[in-house]
Amino acid sequence: MKKIKPHLVFADKQGNIYDHPHLLMLVRRGKEWGLPYPGELIELPPESTFYLLPERQAVGLDPDTGKIEVLEEAPVAAFIAPGYTLSGHVVYTENHHAPKLPLFAYGALGYYKGKFYVAAQQVDTDKRQVFLGISKQKIIYGAQDLRKKLPNNRLIAHLTRCALTYGCPAAKNLALGRFEAPLPTAKTCNARCIGCISLQSKDSGFPATQKRINFTPSPKEIAEIILIHAKRVKKPIFSFGQGCEGEPLTGWENILKAIKLAKKNLSKGTININTNGSFPEAMEPLAKAGLKSIRISLNSLRPHIYKAYYRPTYDFNKVIESIKEAKKNNLFVSLNYLFFPGFSDTEEELDSLISTIQDTKLDFIQMRNLNIDPLLYLNLYSNEKEKPSFGLKNFMLRIKKECPWIKFGYFNPYLG
């Protein structure tokens, strides 16, 4: 892309968005502020969202003086569409009484010659969570149809409510009969993630973005959804472990029964579990029953960084052991790598990640954005010595160079 210099985007008190006539857009990478790297900016993808950040001030760079200027007006961030990973956060200052930001990712946003630009990279072309041209009425009809077909299935009632009330992309896809079917099962979790999207304490300062499931579905209820989705989709994926639940493997015996029950009448599809990987003992029996893949979520391969965010009741070594057990049992293993610009793309983190990939021979990395207030996350590691970062693009290139078999993406792949 030709060299561009987007201007700062800000908003007034009424929420009207403007581009500054002179100040340039800045990008936050960890604690560092700077101009975007060459080739780092892309046009803002469709289905991205603007967020105005309250009790905060927009910050830009004066190209004539080289000085940073702080405006009275509010900063505007981009919550980027699925399939893209942010390489830089929005830059701002905040008041002492500023509320914590909700659990989204806040991308740096600029404006240049009639177009919005964001610091990000496309990592997956799958249209799994693109709903352009799909009417809400079609989703409502699909949800109502599922309720009619399975009127006594509590999990269907839960998921159709997720689709219609919370706008969950996975639940909407189930209602539409396409792509990946969500299968939440777990009321409890063995970690207390700072950015948990389904359960937050009253003193966290921000709400959970989804309501956690409050019952344990039976194997029959789970199997019914697997089988009805398989009939409607050419290449179906069935995924345990969703945003509206705790850790699915805390009830892995129930999942095992559900898989065995569904497999009696299942002729196609990929059964997957999204997990924190804390139950290595579950890998062999689940694989024998018909599990095809697991996706393990983490924000770091360094134990002390991982523990500060996940606050687990299990040892970090369990996660690595689960990856090895999964590979031993011929499961496809993905990392759901929660990327945080300026913190993930550092030498120490990259070395730890590459070492783990080489040691375990895992298959795939889903480059996801860590949805959290950027300053809240950085404050977790206030004692960490600041390290220079080298950007998302170089981060991925260096992984590929050292581990050429690795593939990158954003979604769980269909494996047959």
Give a short synopsis of this structure.
With about 425 residues, the protein is of the alpha/beta class. It contains 11 helices and 20 strands.
Number of helices: 11
- Sequence stretches where pLDDT stays below 50 over 5 or more residues: none
CA distance, first residue to last residue: 37 Å
**Secondary structure tally: strands:** 20
In terms of DSSP E residues, the strand content is 15-25%
Oligomeric state of the chains present here: single chain
Give an overview of the whole structure.
It is a single chain. The chain has 416 residues and is an alpha/beta fold. The chain is 29% helix and 23% strand. It has eleven helices and 20 strands. The strands form four sheets. Strands 1, 2, 5, 6, 9, 10, 12 and 13 form an eight-stranded antiparallel β-sheet that branches. It has a seven-stranded parallel β-sheet with strand order 14-15-16-17-18-19-20. Helix 4 (219-232) links the parallel strand 14 (180-183) and strand 15. Helix 2 crosses helix 3 (169-176), helix 4 (219-232) packs across helix 5 (252-263) and helix 9 runs parallel beside helix 11 (392-402). The chain is globular. The two termini are 37 Å apart.
Helices and strands in order, then pairings?
Blueprint: E1 7-11, E2 17-24, E3 27-29, E4 32-34, E5 41-43, E6 49-52, E7 56-61, E8 68-70, E9 74-79, E10 84-86, E11 92-94, E12 109-112, E13 115-122, H1 136-149, H2 154-166, H3 169-176, E14 180-183, H4 219-232, E15 237-240, H5 252-263, E16 270-275, H6 283-289, E17 293-298, H7 303-310, H8 317-328, E18 332-339, H9 347-360, E19 364-369, H10 374-380, H11 392-402, E20 407-409
Parallel strand pairs: 14-15, 15-16, 16-17, 17-18, 18-19, 19-20
Antiparallel strand pairs: 1-2, 1-9, 1-12, 3-4, 5-13, 6-9, 7-8, 7-11, 10-13, 12-13
Helix pairs in contact: 1-2, 1-3, 2-3, 4-5, 9-11
